[in-house]
Amino acid sequence: MSFDVAWVHAPLQAGTAVVIFVAHLLTAARALTRPNRAPASRAAWVAVIMLAPVVGVIAYLLLGETSIGRSRLRRLQRVRQNMTLIEQASSSDPSAAVLEDNVASLFALAQSINGFHPTSGNRIALLGVMGESDNPADDCRASMAALVADIERASESVHIAFYIWLDDGAGGQVADAVAAAARRGVDCRVMVDALGSRAFIKGRRWQQLQQAGVRQLKTLDDINRLQHMAFSRMDLRDHRKIVVIDNRIAFCGSQNCADPEFQPKPAYAPWIDLLLRCEGPLVRQVQYLFLSGWIPESGEAGLDGYAAAGGALQGEGTTTAMAFETGPITRHNAMADMFVACIYAARRELVITTPYFVPDESILRALCAAPRRGVLTRIIFPARNDSWLVGQSSRSTYADLLQCGVQVYEYPLGLLHAKSLTVDGEVALVGSANMDRRSLELNFENNLLIADPQVVGDVRHRQQRYLDASRLLELQQVQAWPFYSRLTQNAVAMMSPVL
């Protein structure tokens, strides 16, 4: 009897082995042939798949692709084609015409991403406390207070999109203000990432907003379901931070809807962020970005032309700016291209703050080339990173940066979460995007490109406050790190295309 059982099972085992072998080869072939993938990413994935066949295949099925699903992609594309956006600025706009060639080229690149034009006549303010403050978290508290005040004055609409919304002091105040606005007849729409705001969605504040009549949306809440897992990515996220009030005021930056103490990770607090308040034609673009995400997911009709009606400004502003958005449905490498272009546009000074630094080869090479072109280049990282993997990968680049003349600083007073880049005191890039693989390839992100000496000067002044509080690293210090530290850092960095 045992011989008969073995005789029956042998073909089954052989068939299973063949199926696994074919699946293994097909997955490796897909990793090699998938379009829009860097050679380093191909090599890393093929190594994982070949060295750990079963684990590698499963990992690739869950994390190897960036598809958001064909039906969702069709909905997004259809809505964006139907939406209208009327802009005042054009290539003949006097404000745009005075931009120097290197600045104008940056706006041309940003325009190629979403099709927006540079808009003039905007008023943009960097929110925070007046004067100097010994507590860097005061800027974040003042920013949220300004946001709450504008929501309390809203009379027409309040549109909010956050990656993280917490039920804490600031998060609760914003929720109360939105609920009160909805009860007095203001059209309120709230869009939060299903993963980043999962605790908020399950809590009493989400119910409070619903009971007040606020329209709600949990973005990408189905991305990790079984039917989406194969050849997709279960951890795609909507990382945007957008608020538009009365189709007239927009808020953009790095700040989530939370206190700087950030309850989920208090050991790294305070979270230090930047938030910009915008008025003028730029608001239309920000409103477009919100609605182009809201309409296809909610199915709400009648909003296609709403963005085009916004952007009124009482009293002409002086700032030229443009909003743009990147993500799984935009051109590959769009955000990386913007970072690289801004780095190469610098002629005298380049200052960058980013909490998560896992650059691709193009960004790292551009940064290393900047000091050799005579550009004073400074990058500020948090001294302690809430992501161990990102922190290790980030530090693996320090030696290269320092050897090329880049000044590397570490900020010790909390998690420097601000994502900012200033070029020669003339141009600023501020928003939600980090210089890591998630922001470059996976997340939905929104940024502002700004050309105005006053606004850029305010951002540069805030960066200087970070610099003054930070510690400058020396090449000798990095070279003296223990062997096991460098081994760990480089091993993690080597696998970063897979993570």
User: How many individual domains?
Assistant: 3
Structural class: alpha/beta
CATH architecture of the largest domain: 2-Layer Sandwich
Percent in helix = 40-55%
The biggest sheet amounts to: 15 strands, mixed
Shape: globular
Regarding CATH, which class of the largest domain?
Alpha Beta
Please give the count of helices: 20
**Amino-to-carboxy terminus distance:** 50 Å
Mean pLDDT rating = 87
Query: Radius of gyration in whole Å, from Cα?
Result: 24 Å
Q: Give me the CATH superfamily of the largest domain.
A: Endonuclease Chain A
Work out the number of β strands. Answer: 17
Strand order of the largest sheet: 4-3-2-5-6-8-1-9-16-15-14-10-11-12-17
CATH domain topology of the largest domain: Endonuclease, Chain A
**Residue ranges: pLDDT <50 for 5 or more in a row?**
87-97, 225-231
Which strand-content bin applies to the residues?
A: 15-25%
Describe this structure in words.
It is a single chain. The protein is of the alpha/beta class. It has 3 domains: 2-63, no CATH class; 72-97 and 133-318, Endonuclease Chain A (Endonuclease, Chain A); 334-494, Endonuclease, Chain A (2-Layer Sandwich), CATH 3.30.870.10. It contains 20 helices and 17 strands.
